Amino acid sequence: MTRPRRLELVSYSGMGQQLNTPAEWARACDAFATWLRASGKPESTVYLRMYQVRRFAITIEKRPFDVVLDDLAVYLSAHRWSPNTRRATRSGLRSFYRWAHATGRMDHNPAELLPVVPAPLGRPRPAPEEVVQLGLHIADERVRLMIRLAATGGLRCCEIAVVHSSDLRPSLDGWSLIAHGKGRRVRTVPISDHLADEIARADGFLFPGQIDGHLSAAYVSKLVSRALPEGVTAHMLRHRYASVTYAADRDIRAVQELLGHASVATTQVYTAVPDGALRRAALAAAA
Fold first, then answer.
1. Which of 48, 78, 210, 212 is deepest in the core (most CB within 10 A)?
2. Which tens digits make up the pLDDT trace of 48-106?
3. DSSP three-state, residue 230
4. Gap between the Cα atoms of 224 and 227, Å rounded
5. The pLDDT value given to residue 9
6. Which residues in the chain show pLDDT less than 50?
7. Does the annotation mark 238 as catalytic?
8. Per the residue annotation, which of 49, 90, 148, 261 is the catalytic one?
9. What is the pLDDT of residue 15?
10. For 9-102, CATH number?
11. Closest by alpha carbon to 147, among 241, 231, 243, 268?
12. How far apart are CA 55 and CA 173, in angstroms?
């Protein structure tokens, strides 16, 4: 590869790493970030895309708009990443070069023909009931409420962090909670009267903090994980919720709506087959 002239480095902290990005790349990333925000992308997406592009920038000895398809392919093949990380990185680079092409900075998109990275088959990882009960027993009142919102409401950590007493909604058959999900999507989740009472008592954010008045999603995740045995995460409580709600009526579309998934295929990854279902199905075929 042709070495470019030395460029000023711009420091950027991302995903726990300090990335010293060449200034020309940093300017391109800033313009790309503005484009993403103008399209309504959430800050979490902007942050991730910046990290993915800047990480590529510090490994490539070219200016951003001199990159060709082979450079991108070499970069993606040179790391021992998980399939999910490889897929996400490919997506970030494709997004960046799609923007560069669309805005006239390049006359083509070098990332357009990057090979597809197959998605690994996911599997449900519901937290065992005894683990949920243990967490509820040993946690303090605040973390106990976080666990209940995840295990009995199916909320993500980013949704738990922003729960507000004004999100409660009454109906003829009980209380529901407005969950503020990814990409500014909202959904309505039925909850128990007891959980609704606890939320109503907050009179504001359920978990006050310094991030726009509430705790960060990362801190919620840390607090919940600390209350659970090693190897059990806050997200596994959401898998538990998906599996239990699916077992109730075997209605995958209902579970999809409760979880706020765009695709039923994603919901299927969360829902464990109920105990005995496989045996009953097999014996029915043998009858």
1. 48
2. 899 999 999 999 989 999 999 999 999 999 988 878 788 889 999 999 999 999 999 99
3. coil
4. 5
5. 43
6. 1-17
7. yes
8. 261
9. 43
10. 1.10.150
11. 241
12. 51
Say which CATH topology domain 129-275 has: hpI Integrase; Chain A (1.10.443)
Radius of gyration of the chain (CA): 23
Verify whether residue 97 is a known catalytic residue.
no
> Residue 208 pairs with which residues in a beta bridge?
214
In 3D, which of 230, 226, 228, 216 has the Cα closest to residue 156? 216
Q: Annotated catalytic, 235?
A: yes
Q: Catalytic one among 156, 180, 214, 240?
A: 156
- Distance (Å, whole) CA 209 – CA 283: 54
Give CA–CA dist 206/221, Å, rounded.
Answer: 15
Q: How far apart are CA 119 and CA 85, in angstroms?
A: 10
Residue 249: count of CB within 10 angstroms of its CB: 9
What torsion do the CA atoms of 109, 113, 115, 116 make, to the nearest 10 degrees? 80
Scan for tokens 């005894």, then name that residue.
Answer: 130
**pLDDT of amino acid 276:** 75
Could you say which of 62, 63, 86, 182 is catalytic?
Answer: 182
User: Could you check whether 9-102 and 129-275 share the same CATH topology?
Assistant: no
Helix, strand, coil content of the chain in percent (nearest 5):
55, 15, 35
Q: Is 261 a catalytic residue?
A: yes
- Which residues lie closer than 8 Å to 101 by C-beta, 6 or more apart? 107, 108, 109
What are the residue ranges spanned by the domains of the chain?
9-102, 129-275
The CA-based dihedral angle spanning residues 259, 260, 265, 271, taken in that order and rounded to the nearest 10 degrees:
0
pLDDT of residue 6: 38
SS3 18: strand
